[in-house]
Amino acid sequence: MTQEILKSLKAAIWFMFLTFPIMVIKVNTVYKTIEWRWMNMVFIGVGIFVGSFVWRWLLNRKDNPTVKKDHVPVSTRIQSYLAENPMAKRALQGVLLAALLCFPIFMNAYQINIFTVALMYIILGLGLNIVVGLAGLLDLGYVAFYAVGAYTYALLNTNFGMSFWVVLPIGGALAAIFGILLGFPVLRLRGDYLAIVTLGFGEIIRLVLENWNDFSHGPSGIAGIDKPDFFGLELSLNQMTDAIYYMMVAFTIITIFFVGRLQNSRIGRAWLALREDEIACQAMGIGRTRTKLMAFALGATWAGLMGVVFAAKTSFINPASFTFLESAIILSIVVLGGMGSIPGVILGALIMILLPEYMRSFSEYRMIIFGGAMVLMMVFRPQGLVSNFRRKYSFHGVDERLGG
Amino acid sequence: MENILEVKGLTMDFGGLRAVDSVDLYVKPKEIVALIGPNGAGKTTFFNCVTGIYTPTKGDILVSSNSGSAVRINGFKPNRVTERGLGRTFQNIRLFPNMTVLENVMIGKHCRLSAKILGALFRDKKTRAEELKAAQECYTILEKLGLEKACDELASNLPYGDQRKLEIARALATEPKMLLLDEPAAGMNPQETVELTHLIRRIRDTEQIAILLIEHDMKLVMNLSERIYVMDHGQKIADGTPLDIRNNPEVIKAYLGEDIDA
User: In CATH, what is the architecture of B1-85+176-262?
Assistant: First the structure.
């Protein structure tokens, strides 16, 4: 205990010394005087002392857990309860759906817009989750596929007047093709090397869009893209916001449904095996090439679809929307939520998108709070908020359980 | 071809090092064959060549196909080799730790199933039936090996001996004609080794498959195998029945070293 206090004291003194020039001395250039703000030093000393003490205590608690070894995390308990009680699961799904559908009635256009964006990121997160969470291929250039989708719609719409619903599948398919194009050269790569190549791929797409003026209008982007068309109805701005919101709710539900099915299919199992042990996976009869390309292509498809939606929603796109930061945010959603877990990714997307949005009142501090929260997360819960939960099979009444 | 596996003059070079030097080997259907030798003799490299993890420098690896003709599988990808009916386990356990026991076995079934993306997305009748059948077959395999109680556990939570068994279960799920076991008894106590001996023999009898195993435990090898190949420094130095091998001076020399005053 005294040792801990002593360590914290040392940290406090060291920080007081380090921050002395910037926090204590203030040169007033008008009156040519020097102000000595000793109170700041006291604040820093006390702050660092308390902070360092709490930090050490938390680390210590993490290394020597007081709970038993076979302690089941809350998220796993909830998930297994829901898996065993389909009624409760249906009820929860019903409540969530009702809440989502009623949302625009009570909220203003600003809130609806934020939520629409959050839903888009849920889908992007679920798509990247296939590549990173399930197949274990670290992809840092995911936003490239998003850009492919967005530019597909922007160009086809402004040049040929093609409608949103026609371009939507084209954007998805084109992104899938790009996914395979990226997949081929990186088949043999893993881990860090794969991350670097995918990062490069993402930058290549962005730089091409930025510099190929004749094709993509360069950095000035493409404006005047048509909003999606809903059965030919003439919609006001607010109605359009609502319509896009409902469309995104539908897309999200479809995506969750499909990704859930993929996860528990023959292909989903193959991805997991690929993530766990590549050599054993091949020796058990799984073709590496096929499985990896499938993961890249399917993950990219969702990014492409969302790209089309993004272009239609904002009606203006330029390469600045597809920077590395965007890839990093989507990756953070997957990592924060818990790799390979659908509820995790949803939670991650809501936190990553809504939190900075609602913290706008803290204006300049919000990014610091946000960054700090991410660091704490990685130290204390590196597996993500929601632990991965595997489907259990029951062999007492095999027939009814396996169908669902 | 009457042999299930026939290896002729297999050679594997790593740069200047010849790890396997023109080794001949054959395995007949329903036969238990052991491959033994001191550490570093090239046994595992031989396995890796046969199962496609390495592409051999020279030689032929022939596997009998369903129609009875021989297929040369040199340079086949590991998954193609598995499809041809060679299932294997690893010396250092290579399970999928974060998947359940049943899922581990179902990975083995992968190459015998046919569900595609659309089947997975829409889960049509055929896909559902296939999944159900696969899960049941895998459960039956687990029952045979006495692992059915642990079927929903994560593989990493199994005790060591059960993890070894699970590797065998996973290899069996690939519906092999021949099982290649790389040191199945490594790290087991004498009691477990005896159980394993019975298990391997039972698998051969019930599944009617051939077994080729690498092992250091001489008791297991002598009890179990019908023929033994001995390797040393990458070369085959002897083959024959357990009795022949026990009395073969070459083998004794390789294992115990040369007598100084001989």
Answer: 3-Layer(aba) Sandwich (3.40)
Instruction: List chain B residues with CB under 8 Å of A269.
Output: 99, 103, 106-107, 110
Torsion A280-A281-A287-A292 (CA) sign: negative
Domain borders along chain B are 1-85+176-262, 95-174
B119/A265 Cβ within 8 A: yes
Q: Do A269 and B121 touch (CB under 8 A)?
A: no
Distance from CA of A126 to the nearest CA of B (A): 15
Q: Do A393 and B97 touch (CB under 8 A)?
A: no
Of the partner residues B51, B120, B148, the one whose CB lies closest to the CB of residue A283:
B51
CB contact under 8 A, A280 and B106: no
* Within-domain flag for A46: yes
- Distance (Å, whole) CA A112 – CA A245: 7
A17 and A159 housed in the same domain: no
Same domain, A132 and A214: yes
ipTM: 0.89
Nearest by CB to residue B120, choosing from A265, A280, A286, is A265
Residues near A240 by beta carbon (within 8 Å), at least 6 away in sequence: A227
* pLDDT above 50: residue B62: yes
Q: Is residue A343 part of a domain?
A: yes
> Chain A contact for B17, CB < 8 A?
no
Q: Which of A124-128, B64-68, B128-132, B161-165 has the lowest mean pLDDT?
A: B64-68
CA–chain centroid gap for B247, Å, is: 27
Q: Looking at the structure, tell me whether residues A50 and A188 fall in a common domain.
A: no
Same domain, A243 and A144: yes
Give the model confidence (pLDDT) of B108-142 as tens digits: 999 888 888 888 888 888 888 998 999 999 999 99
Give residue B174's pLDDT band: very low, low, confident or very high (50, 70, 90): very high
pLDDT at A398 over 60: no
Chain A: closest CA distance from residue B235 (Å): 25
Supply the range of the domain harboring residue A368. 108-380
Mean pLDDT throughout A110-124? 94
Number of structural domains found in chain A: 2
Q: Is residue A393 part of a domain?
A: no
Residue A135 and residue A35 in one domain: no
Q: What is the β-pairing status of strands B70-72 and B58-64?
A: antiparallel
- The dihedral region occupied by B6, where left means phi > 0, alpha psi between -120 and 50, and beta the remainder, is beta
Residue A363 has pLDDT above 80, yes or no: no
B132–A398: do the CB atoms touch at under 8 Å?
A: yes
The verdict on A203 and A263 lying in the same domain is: yes
Q: A-contacting residues of B 50-79, CB under 8 Å?
A: 51-53, 77-79
Residue A36 CA, chain-centre distance (Å), reads 46
- Final residue before a domain boundary, out of A30, A45, A63: A63
Residue A385 forms contact with B (CB below 8 Å): no
Per-residue model confidence as pLDDT tens digits over A324-343:
989 999 998 998 888 888 99
Considering the domain architecture, whether residues A332 and A186 belong to the same structural domain is answered as: yes
Q: How far is CA A180 from CA A267, A269, A271, A308, in A?
A: 17, 20, 16, 19
Q: Considering the domain boundaries, does residue A374 fall inside one?
A: yes
Compute the residue count for chain B.
Answer: 262
Same domain, A29 and A116: no
Sequence-ordered list of residues with C-beta below 8 angstroms from that of A166, at least 6 positions apart, any chain: none
* Closest CA relative to residue A336, chosen from A322, A315, A314, A351: A351
CA distance A10 to A31: 37
Over the stretch A8-21, which tens digit does the pLDDT of each residue have? 889 999 988 898 88
Q: How confident is the model at residue A386 (pLDDT cuts 50, 70, 90)?
A: confident
